[in-house]
Amino acid sequence: MIAAILVLTGLALLFGLILGYASVRFKVEGDPIADKIDSLLPQTQCGQCGYPGCRPYAEALAKGEAPINLCPPGGETTMLALADLLDVEPLELDEEANKQPEVPEVAFIIEEDCIGCTLCIQACPVDAIVGSAKHIHTVIESECTGCKLCLPPCPVDCIIMKPLKISPNNWKWKPPHSIEKDYPVIPSSTESELEESV
Amino acid sequence: MTSRKLWRFHGGVHPPFHKEESNQLASEFAGIPAQLVIPMQQHIGEAAEAVVKAGDKVYKGQKIAVADHHGISANIHAPTSGKISAIEERVLPHPSGLPGLCIVLDSDGKDDWGDCKLTPYSDYQNTEVSELLQRIRESGIVGLGGAAFPTAVKVSGSLNKAVSTLIINGAECEPYITCDDRLMRERSAEIIEGIKILQYMIDPQECLIGIEDNKPEAIEAMSKACETEENIEVVTIPTIYPSGGEKQLIKILTGKEVPAGGLPLDIGILGQNVATVYSIYQAVVKGIPLISRLLTVTGNGIQRPQNFEVLNGTPISYLAERAGGYTKMAEYLIMGGPMMGFALRDDHIPVVKASNCTLFVSSTVLNESNSAYPDQPTLPCIRCGKCMDACPLNLLPQQLYWHIRARDFERAESHNLKDCIECGACSYVCPSHIPLVNYYRFAKGEIREQTETQEKARRARQRHEFLEFRKAREKREREEKRAAHKAALQKKKQAAAKARAATNGAAGDASDSKADAIKAAMQRVKAKKQARAQQAKKQTKEQTKPTKDAPGINK
Amino acid sequence: MRLIYGKMPLFWLYHFMTEYLLIVVGTVWVNNIVLSQFLGLCPFMGVSRKLETAMGMGLATTFVLTLSSISSYLVFEYLLQPFALEYLRTISFILVIAAIVGFTELVIHKTSPVLHNVLGIYLPLITTNCAVLGVALLNTQKSHGFLESALYGFGSAIGFTLVLVLFAAMRERLAAADVPKAFQGNAIAMITAGLMALAFMGFTGLIKAT
User: Fold this and answer.
1) What is the ipTM of this complex?
2) pTM of this structure
């Protein structure tokens, strides 16, 4: 009886010591999983997920505080990639909140109307607008992420969204039609044939 | 022609070849159409830039577009004399059907060279290699086998490397196409001359001309032309599709395999199409830039299938008319052959440098060569594996199909999707008529777009992080400045207080002197005011005496 | 045979090879811990959706199983048996296994945070994996020695990993294949697992008895 209690207590103490030492020796600093999540997000920095930028959303995801279907620019692909990485079930995306244009859009400043107030420059999260006070501003097309954060601040409403031009260089083939359309599981014609033969 | 050891590549298919339709007649000059449409992008790399404008008169052979300096590009020359009617967007001969910038040339029928013919090199054996290379570059020569890679870039890359074998591609394995066949039969001497120019430039150890055995007349003509040459050999290869692919021909003739993702130059081999070599001859020996080529007009949808010598930018409708017009069976217009070509929407589209065939066919003919235009329904994959037996690159088309169907592009890429040459052999053999090549083309586009998006996202993240850093830095600097300013102010006040305490308001005190100066100034102003007021009083006393009607003089 | 018995070192080598090799072959193929003894089915079905996670889980379980069967043997042999406390073996084995799993979790969290995140709850659940406790108890039941216990644990873990990886590869293919709607997901996975178990029955004739 005493031996049993002693043995179990002794074992427990021993393992407790080992685990205590291990928890100190193998301490993890920082949050490396947030970096991996951040690399999957589209970096639009638009804030539509409710967090001020992609990194805060990534950190919330890492802590498990946020669902994976909040990112409209990322769309279905990002949601599935996040589901893959975090090994959770894919969630439904909110259809109307996540309305993305067919072709990616970039901002365009109508230079005749620009008054040089720099409000859009301050709003852009990736510094894609060039200009300074009382000088015409313009958007660097290759760096614009299409987040639309510059449209509200403009006092003369001179910024519009233009679709990216598709040329033979960046055109891509359409997906081939799926076989379900050509080969339905029960062809309707065979049913009527069977009826006739009977 | 000697019997050499030949190798075989994996797979390959034997579609019906249909060569007799168009290779019986000698090639004819197609003529000068009323309007030529010449796209700026006819080659791999950057588009050329137009150096003429609407309304300009041009001579035949005049340079109308220069190669872009920022990358790989090629010049474009006017195929005939005439007037530039416009530089505008026109539909391109591209599977997307999208328009691109084109120079529209209205021909004047005179075909006048003016002074635009380049100086022929009568003795190229004694000319500098760099000059010949410059001539090739100047003439806008691109790979005429279909890839349209600028030849000057390809050859200049090989000048510094030891090339053991120069391979001339006369295989022409795709069904229906016979332009290279006729070129070899009719202009073999010129082709051999072009080969000798290349041999002089890159000095290979041997030169092999690969021709399929279904072209006996071409083999004979080429063999006769190079009888006296020691280093040039015509090699007959068995007819199989796609033995005309560069990597496949290299394997057949030399047994070497080009490493995945690499170039034939990596293993010391340079390949050129016979038509490209002919153009090199034209440019160096005759001074004629690349403005025309042989092209096959064929299929059961055209009355008189044959080969034409076609000017760059000729509309296809002109060629169809020249060949006798359409038959009742013309349903599809294919640019290229039935295995690797793509369908065009209408026949006003022009031909470009890389066009080797325009095919007018009915759907039954296409169905026997390619499931990409199926009138037959696509059935489920039965995992028979015939596609894997047919692939010339020893890939796994079935696995690629399943992965792309599941949209798992990573797995597809790990199965070497990048090495697929889209030859169509797998689609040809599939018993379920699955358009396999379309799946691979779709996947390659998606992967390319994904890579671009990722790169863009990475840049956006960098810029955003820098923006945060910049904002933080500005804030920090502002804080520091304010703190410094405050500290300086504090120091000044303290020093002032100390000094005042020390000297008890003496005149020499710095801070006090300011107050003193202000006081003194105020006293001066006061004195001035008093003086003015007294002066004014005196004046009013004097002036009120003589004049009565002078009100408001003094304020 | 007489010749071999005559040369003593060779005898031990022969004994070593047959005895221990038999244990390994037996646990990996013939009496596979998952498909023949039906232990450890929870992670088998739960972690086998992707090949990479299955591999990670298999390696983690190998680490835990080997260590725990060695430690369990040591505890049983030198702590429980001398004091005639064999009846405490279940609870003390669980204590040992829980400690080792805790230790493994800390190590994995440090070395591969992605794997740690992906395995998620299944990593601490190795504690309740009946394969681990089962192997520890089977060792006592069969009165294995030290090396035999270690090999038995290691072999079982290798068998577990093998089957887990095979199953994960098949499930990935099944996810992309034309499975009828009613069978998609876990249903076809169960059927596949059953077919795999049938296939592994073919190994029964490989060795006489384990």
Assistant:
1) 0.73
2) 0.79
